[in-house]
Specification:
single chain, alpha/beta, Rossmann fold, 6 helices, binds 4'-phosphopantetheine
Length: about 160
């Protein structure tokens, strides 16, 4: 039986924190589907196509990684793609409350789908897409937080 996990998120943009979870997830699961949420609550900096492209460039030739977008409820999407697992990274304690709420709500919506967490590596625990965007917007270096091509994409966005 093939072990599939969905790794959902905004990925606006991809950071080394996400990359670490995907790499480690691929050691545990046969296939990881990165599900980029088309989120009604957030206005993204990058279009979904741009976000997919930035992720694809970080995993060249990795055929066990699928990139997709979804609208609506995550659990419905998980069911559609036949995944029993939602994979999420946990950084600092501050993530815990939000993740606990989401995991419980998702279980309430569909208790056949399990949320599994991976602790973010200590070198990445402070990295977030939000902070990366803020630093890059004001010309700060984000070299340690995102791959080169993401850094370049951020620079290009903020010089538009
Ligand atoms: O990277 P993010 O922005 O923290 O990811 C949040 C995400 C996309 C996982 C969450 O907003 C989500 O699952 N959205 C889909 C809509 C949904 O199912 N909402 C109820 C979750 S309790």
């Amino acid at each position: 039986m093939s072990r599939i996990a969905i790794y959902p998120g905004s990925f606006d943009p991809l950071t080394y924190g996400h990359i670490s979870i995907i790499e480690r997830g691929l050691r545990v699961f046969d296939t990881i589907i990165v599900g980029i949420a088309i989120n009604v609550r957030k206005t993204p900096l990058f279009t979904t196509e741009e976000r997919i492209d930035l992720i694809r460039k970080s995993f060249p030739g990795e055929d066990r990684l699928q990139l997709d977008t979804f609208e609506g409820l995550l659990v419905d999407y998980a069911k559609r793609v036949n995944s029993k697992v939602i994979l999420r990274g946990l950084r600092a304690v501050s993530d815990f409350e939000y993740e606990l709420q989401m995991a419980n709500m998702n279980r309430k919506l569909n208790d056949t789908i399990e949320t599994m967490f991976m602790m973010t590596e200590e070198t990445h625990f402070y990295v977030s897409s939000g902070l990366v965007k803020e630093v890059a917007r004001f010309g700060g270096a984000v070299t340690d937080q995102v791959p080169k091509h993401v850094e370049q994409a951020l620079k290009a966005k903020f010089s538009e």
